[in-house]
Amino acid sequence: MARNSSVLSETKCLICGHDNEPDMLLCASCYAPMSIVQDARAQEREPKIVSVIGESNVGKTVYLGFLLDMLAHRAGAFEAIPKGAYSVDLQQNVIGHLARRSFPPKTPMEANQWYWAYYQVRREEADAPWVDLVMPDMAGESLAAEVSTPKTFRVIHSLLNKSKGLLLLVDAAAAANGSNQPDFFAMKMLSYVDSMFGGKHEEKIETPVSIVLCKADYCPECFDDPRSFVKANLNRVWNLCESRFANVEFFAASVVGSLGYATSLEDDTVAPVPLHTALRGVLEPFEWIIDQL
After folding, report:
1. CB neighbours of 274 closer than 8 A, spacing ≥ 6?
2. Which of 49, 142, 240, 276 is the least crowded, having the fewest Cβ atoms under 10 Å away?
3. Does pLDDT of 291 surpass 80?
């Protein structure tokens, strides 16, 4: 097997392939951290990108932060090692805010302000292979802009094009309440991926996709049968998955156990307050993706 260090240049961005100056900290083209390239060269194997995608406010940052923290705690018999302090920033930010009963700030649209995580992961089994995973926390507004006008955000286009697996987060609570927005956004996202990989009509997309029904504590029937929930409440997504994606699975997940609401003396804004966390179904979509890689 070819050594990865002979393939990866010290200055070529792992995400978009742009040649950078040796002292650059971020790629000059897509703003991905160049430390990922240096860490990947040290491992001498090609890292696999798993992308967490979904619309704004669906909970991508909280989901990814808790997923990384569960891996760090060896949940599900996984052993996980962060490569570089930057890989810990996201989970620290999320865990810290929830411990103070507040949600983390929205992820900025600017790619140079995103959190990136590079983890080595493997199951705690003899001879289980290590998998190098790169997982960025992308802003929902940036994803929406890229889906609407492809290549607006070159870093998103490059990331999804190189992704070996996708976790598509969908707001199950909104869908259960009759909103068609989650169905339409997920459909746009999958259509974008379909166009990107662009096979012939009779060839389905092989990239594994986990459809994660978030905020499922508001509609507990999701946990009993996520497939039936998607078929009934996100029928456009169900039909597109059936037609174009060969490797799809459906999961339900929830993070926040209960919410309170608070106002300030200065204005009438009502803010949600997470009173406690009750993780359910967070690890399973990731486990399934790992088994498909």
Report:
1. 98, 101, 102, 103, 256, 257, 258, 259
2. 276
3. yes
